[in-house]
Amino acid sequence: MRKSLFFRVALVTALALCLIGQVFASGGGQKQGAAASGDLPVIRVAVMPWLLSLPAVEVAEQGWDKENGFKVDLSVYPMGGPLLEAMGANLWDLATIGPAAVFSVANTGLKIVGNISIASGGTGAFIRPDNPAAKIKGQVPGYPNVYGSAETIKGAKVLVPVGSLNHYNVLQWISIFGLKADDVQVVHMDNAPSFQAFKAGQGDITAFSPPLTYTALAEGWINGAGLPELNIQIYDCLYANPRVYNQKKDLMAKFVKQFYRACDYLAANPDVTAKKNFDWQNKNGLNATMENATDEVKVRPYMTSDMAKKETPGQSMKMLAEFYASIGRLEKDKLSNFNSDTMTRELIDMALK
Asked: Which of 41, 180, 196, 210 could bond to 122 as cystine, CB 3.0-4.6 Å?
C-alpha cells in the first residue's frame, strides 16, 4: 500500500502538535507500506530522498527483509526536521538521517547505531561572484582552497537550515577567520527555499549538500568552503528510536545486518549505485541529473560492514555536538548524553559478529 507523504506529515502534525511545513510540490515522498506478508514482524524505517537512504531502500527492493524473516516498512520524509518530529509521535523504529539529528541525541536520547556514508562529501558554503570574499583565496595557512577573510564575511546574512550540516559548514568556515556565530546573521531556511531566495538576490551566504551543491555551481556561485576544504569529515548515521529500542532490538539487528549487506553491494558497484541514486531522487521529485548523481556517489562513499565492525557509531556527531556547545547552540551539560548508551555498537555487534 502506498500513502502520500502529505498524509504522513499531516499525521505527524496532529500527533506532535507541530507545524511541519510544506512538502514536495509534486506530492512528496511515498509511504511504502507493508504489503501482505503473513505474520512477519515489521520494522518501520524512516528514510529521505537522498543517497544515505539507498541501503534501506535496497533491503526492501531486493527482498532481503522477507528472505530473513521480517518486513521493512519504509516512510519517506523530505528533510530531517519532519523525520525527527515523526519520532516524537513514535512513527518509526529506525531512521537514516544526517547531522541535524545531533540535537535529538542530546535532548531525547535518540540512539546512533551505525555510520552510513560521508555526509561532508560535496558540501559547500556559497557566495556570489561579486562578493568581496570571492576575490580572496587561501588567506589562512593550511586552507589553500578556502575563500574569504574576516573583513569580507563579518556581518553577512546566511540562509541555511539552523542546526543542519550546512549551518555547521558555514560556522566552521567563518571560525578559521576568528569569527563567531554572532558575527553573522543566520536566517533559518530549508535548502530549496534558500536556493530560490539566494538566486533572487537575498542573503550573502548559503550552503548546500549534494545534489544542490552541483546546481549552485551551475549557477556560477563560488564555493567559499566545503567541509572537505576545511579538512572535516562527518558521517550520516543510522538511528534508533529509544522508545522502542529494547523491545525491538533483535528485529533491529536483523535489519542492520541486511543494511550493511546493502552498503557493501552499493560500495562495490558505484555505477549501479549512481543509477539507483538518480532514480531514487527523481522518484521523490528532486529532478536530479545522472551526472550529479554519479558525482555524489564519488564524494560520499558508504561505510562497509568491515569498516563498521571497527568503529563506534556517532563519533563525528559527538564532535559536532561539542562544536555547537562551544558556540552556545547546545547546552554544555547535554554533551554527557553522547555516551555508550546513545552511541552504541550493540546492534552492529549483534548483526555483524
From this structure: 210
What does each C-alpha distance from 281 to 39, 43, 204, 285, 296 come to in angstroms? 32, 23, 28, 6, 12
Collapse the DSSP code of 240 into the 3-class scheme (helix H, G, I; strand E, B; otherwise coil) and give the result.
Answer: strand
Distance, CA of 42 to CA of 33 (rounded, Å): 10
Q: Are residues 52 and 133 in the same domain?
A: no
- Same domain, residue pair 272 and 316: yes
In a domain, 36, yes or no: yes
Q: Write down the pLDDT at residue 40.
A: 96
CB 49 within 8 A of CB 280: yes
Residues 159 and 242 in one domain: no
Global pTM?
0.79
Residue 182 lies inside a defined structural domain of this protein = yes
Q: What angle do CA 78, 80, 83 make, to 5 degrees?
A: 80
CATH number of domain containing 219:
3.40.190.10
Beta strands, E only, 177-261: 185-188, 205-208, 222-225, 235-240
Residue-level pLDDT at 287: 85
**Amino acid letter, residue 233:** Q
Q: Note down the domain range covering 152.
A: 124-225
Backbone φ and ψ of 313, nearest 5°: -60, 140
Q: What pLDDT, in 10s, does the model give residues 27-69? A: 334 454 444 456 899 999 999 999 999 999 999 999 999 999 9
User: Which residues lie closer than 8 Å to 260 by C-beta, 6 or more apart?
Assistant: 55, 114, 304, 305, 308, 348, 351, 352
